[in-house]
Amino acid sequence: MHLGRLAAGLIAGAFTFAAATAGQAEPVKLRQGWVVPGADAPLLMFGKQGLTKHEGQSYTLDAIHFNGTPPMITALGAGEIDIAALAYSTFALAVENGGMSNLRILGDVFQDGVPGYYTNEYMVLKDGPIKTVEDLKGKVAASNGAGSAVDMAMRAMFRKHGLEDKKNVTIIEVAFPNMKATLADHKVDIISSVRPFSADPELLKIAHPLFTQKDAIGTSQMIILVASQSFIQKNRAAVVDYLEDSLRALHWYSDPANHNEVVKILADFAKAPPDRYQSWLFTKGGDFFHDPEGLPDLVALQRNIDLQQELGFLKAKLDVKKYADLSLAEEAAKRVK
Predict the structure, then answer these.
(1) Strand 140-143 vs strand 220-228: parallel, antiparallel, or unpaired?
(2) Vertex 277 angle, CA 118 and 183, to 5°
(3) How far is CA 286 from the centre of its chain?
(4) Tens digit of pLDDT for each residue in 49-107?
(5) Are strands 140-143 and 59-65 parallel, antiparallel or unpaired?
């Protein structure tokens, strides 16, 4: 009898221990790619305390820097990252040309050209000869990379005005940090300028926008958050928790009452002067639109990708709704309200 009670007690204890161990499972590591701090970088990476409820509990964040969104395609395919902030152009290339049909759109990162918010600028010298798009015939334009979202908007605007690369205008690749110097040295006649570079006081002394991305292609769903369908299915609860925490962070960073602190956080991280961010960061009119519920504009995204196919960067059309799973973002937004 005593042995029976002992065995029963050991079995019960084993079940209790197993249940406790299951309840204390290791947090899921979420490896997310990003490019620009304050734009597509996870806001949680900046370490502001008190903004998250689930970080360190159901998930941990490993934010991995890339110089652009195209290398993230390779990293996703190789299993080196789990979540990526991809430009609409990069996403379409990954699915249609790269065969990554398992990618799913999780939510919005930011949108260009939403009424009342910022849109990318294509700048020329104030004292230069370029006054209209037609004046660029026979000239040199600087793009950050063929097939990028910014590049495609430039090409679309050129096409509207009868200009084609290698036919009557030359497009060369220049990294964003080098755009100002390339224009100032008269090596190019127009540059692609995005935040934070377009807010550089030194650039604004010598240059002004000839046109904007919105002028070229209307509203753009510039950056979207994506992950593979298999990763989402396996880690759904952790991903929803992460999206919830990300929304809480977005709301805090977007609150005007926190503006000066936000500027300091980003300037310190980027090792840049605060005046590079003070006038525009997370402000209406000065910054891109970040959807407060984390939901992308799928209509704009479809239009953007259709343009990409028309410009010859995609082999075939792509139906974005087939690749969107917004249920996680919707669940996260309900929790934050």
Answers:
(1) unpaired
(2) 75
(3) 17
(4) 889 999 999 999 999 998 788 889 999 999 999 999 999 989 999 998 889 999 999 99
(5) unpaired
Class of domain 24-113+222-336: alpha beta
Tokens standing for residue 329: 């973002």
Give the alpha-carbon dihedral of 50, 55, 58, 59, to 10 degrees.
170
Most confident of 5-9, 93-97, 105-109, 200-204: 105-109
263: Cβ–Cβ under 8 A, 6 or more apart, which residues?
274, 277, 278, 281
CA distance 220 to 242: 25
Q: In the numeric block, which tokens belong to residue 225?
A: 């958050």
Per the CB < 8 A criterion, the answer to whether 64 and 74 are in contact is: no
Cα dihedral: 281, 285, 290, 293 (round 10)? 120
Q: Where in the chain is the domain with CATH 3.40.190.10?
A: 24-113+222-336, 121-217
- Maximum separation of any 2 CA atoms in the chain, in Å: 101
CATH class of the domain whose range is 121-217: alpha beta
Residue 26, token pair as written in the block: 């290791």
Backbone angles phi, psi at 177, to 5 degrees: -65, -20
Strands 103-112 and 220-228: antiparallel
Pseudo-torsion of CA 160, 161, 167, 171, nearest 10°?
A: -80
Indicate the angle between helix axes 149-160 and 298-310, nearest 10 degrees. 60
Total-model pTM: 0.86
